[in-house]
Amino acid sequence: MANAQLEQIRVMLKENPVIQEGASLEDMRKGLDAMGAMTPSLDGITTTKVDAGGVAAEWISADDSGPVLLYLHGGGYVLGSVQSHRALIERLARAMGGRILAIDYRLAPEAPFPAAVDDAVAAYRWLLEQGVAASRLAIAGDSAGGGLTLATLVALRDQGLAMPACAAPISPWTDMEGSGDSMQTRAAVDPMVQKEPLVQMAGTYLQGAEPRNPLASPLYADLSGLPPLLIQVGDAETLLDDTTRIEPRLKEAGVDVTVEVWDEMIHVWHLFAPMLDKGQEAIDRIGAFVRGHAA
Fold first, then answer.
1. How do residues 8-44 score in pLDDT, each as one tens digit?
2. How would you class 179 by CB atoms within 10 Å of its CB: exposed for 0-12, middle for 13-18, buried for 19 or more?
3. What is d(CA 155, CA 168) in angstroms, rounded to the nearest whole number?
4. What are the pLDDT digits (tens) for 65-116?
């Protein structure tokens, strides 16, 4: 049965698309931030701006005594911010009963690959330097931020840093080439991500770097030694195969990974939790996962 709440969101996205043809990058950035500002903050959430090892960030907290999560927002590495994703981040902080360091990593084209990875690693190092034990830490992110979550884990491992207790990529973008079959098979039902603008964003981010570089496309990374993962993806999104293709590679590498494919759900449906019950349900599952590993 069709989800009535989801159908309303589809109508909203059709009337106000995130990627607007002919719009400047600056206008799209402002528009996405404005969308994020439309949802009132939750009661009991505190926010504090910080410099996290040279990276602009905010503490968004529901409980300062709970586990800590580093959040990496989506937006194709060219859009997005803490502000655009505030509603999702606040709900996740409440669901996990802890606090989130949400970072505004540098965006392309001003700061191309691997700037986003460098900033995520710098923020993680800063958390460790603040005395946060890796066993109490988690990482999560959506879309590009989901791919960045995996890339950051690979970079942390390669740099010999203590791994976090767990990580939760949401609708992760793991393949800069957009070569999965779902780019075509889900194109008609995905109101947010299509191959042509995705590949354009990849070019803007990579600026000539190899698209199969493992820190850009974690699909091609050595995935051994990563912590337990919960990956959530919608069945109605073009990036579905970015998860279904990396799942067996993670398992072959010995990673404890749980993949949830949510029926009918679109790209990062969690963003619509204020009006979509399934969005809040997915966030609650991530919160429980983080508590189970990092609390």
1. 999 988 888 777 777 899 999 998 898 888 889 999 9
2. middle
3. 16
4. 999 999 999 999 999 999 999 999 999 999 999 999 999 999 999 999 999 9
Strand partners, 61: 46, 99
179 catalytic per annotation: no
197-218: buried (b, 16+ CB within 10 Å) or exposed (e) per residue?
A: ebbebbbbbbeebebebbbbbb
Phi, psi of 49 (to 5 degrees): -80, 140
Task: Please say if 237 is a catalytic residue.
Answer: yes
Annotate 86-141 with DSSP letters as a single string. HHHHHHHHHHHTSEEEEE----TTTS-TTHHHHHHHHHHHHHHHTT--GGGEEEEE
Which one is catalytic: 81, 84, 143, 171? 143
Q: Is 260 a catalytic residue?
A: no
End-to-end CA distance of the chain: 37
Widest pairwise Cα distance in the chain: 50
Count how many residues are written for the chain. 295
Of 132, 20, 149, nearest to 73 (Cα)? 149
Q: How many CB atoms lie within 10 A of CB 160?
A: 6
Angle between helices 25-37 and 86-96 in degrees, nearest 10: 40
CA dihedral sign of residues 272, 205, 122, 229: positive
Distance CA 76, CA 205 (A): 8
Q: Structure pTM?
A: 0.97
